[in-house]
Amino acid sequence: MSAAAQPGRLVFLDVDTQVDFMLPSGRLYVPQAEEIIPNLARLMGWARQHRIPVLSSADTHAPDDPEFALWPPHCVAGTPGQRRIPETLFPDAVVLENRPGAFHPPREWVGQLIIEKPVYDFTTHVNFDAILASLGQPRFVVFGVATEYCVLADVLALARRSLPVALVQDAIKPISEEGGRKALQEMVAAGAQLVTTGEVCSPTFQDVRGFRFEPLANPAATDYPSSYF
């Protein structure tokens, strides 16, 4: 597969599955987030096995970030809490800093690209338009935390760009049940399709616009590159 745009390419969007959000020891723990870790691991394993590119947003803050007037300090760059949990981190993941010119189109869209961002919406990354141009018109499978904040912001941002979204409802967690319910309603109203981990991790998975995922005939025999670049 070349890095040239392929219409309808399936892409997984792994939203902020970082220690500070996912684990009880985290600085801004999402209640019961650890309950979805088995499904997160299954989704990431499926992507790895079938060479589905994974874009992983990563909340990344300076120690004096103004956001800390609203939330407790969390995901400060370089701290243990800013790291991804092991289940959502490929050993050869590439980290993309939020600075102009940091993105270079890969030879092959496979593996994990970690996209650092200081706000809810990962599409605000200064290189997002270049990433999207390289991917073409992808179809996103979205999962992660927190449902009513970064997941909601990302799904709505993708919907505004008319990009199809399948939301994995058993691989997301809200900060509050009420907030999660309202966010789900808003995302569905924007066009997101609700799916399950089991449905996504199936050769017959079909998204909202009829795209059918075709697995590799022999994925175990495939040589994976050490990184995107």
In short:
The protein has 229 residues and is of the alpha/beta class. The chain has six helices and seven strands, in the order E-H-H-E-E-E-H-E-H-E-H-E-H. It has a single domain (10-213), classed as 3-Layer(aba) Sandwich (Rossmann fold).
CATH topology: Rossmann fold
The biggest beta sheet reads: 7 strands, parallel
What is the string of SSEs from the N terminus onward?
Answer: EHHEEEHEHEHEH
Overall geometry: globular
Low-confidence stretches: 1-7, 214-229
Helix content: 10-25%
The tally of beta strands, per DSSP, is 7
Note down, in words, how this protein is organized:
The chain has one domain: Isochorismatase-like (Rossmann fold, 3-Layer(aba) Sandwich), CATH 3.40.50.850. About 25% of the residues lie in helices and about 15% in strands. The chain contains six helices and seven strands. β5, α4 and β6 form a beta-alpha-beta unit. α4 packs parallel to α5. It starts with 9 loop residues before the first strand and ends in a 29-residue tail after the last helix.
Search tags:
single chain, 229 residues, alpha/beta, Rossmann fold, seven-stranded parallel sheet, 6 helices, globular, disordered C terminus
Write the layout of secondary structure elements.
Elements: E1 10-15, H1 19-22, H2 37-50, E2 54-59, E3 94-96, E4 112-117, H3 128-135, E5 139-145, H4 147-160, E6 165-173, H5 177-189, E7 193-195, H6 197-200
Parallel strand pairs: 1-2, 1-5, 2-4, 3-4, 5-6, 6-7
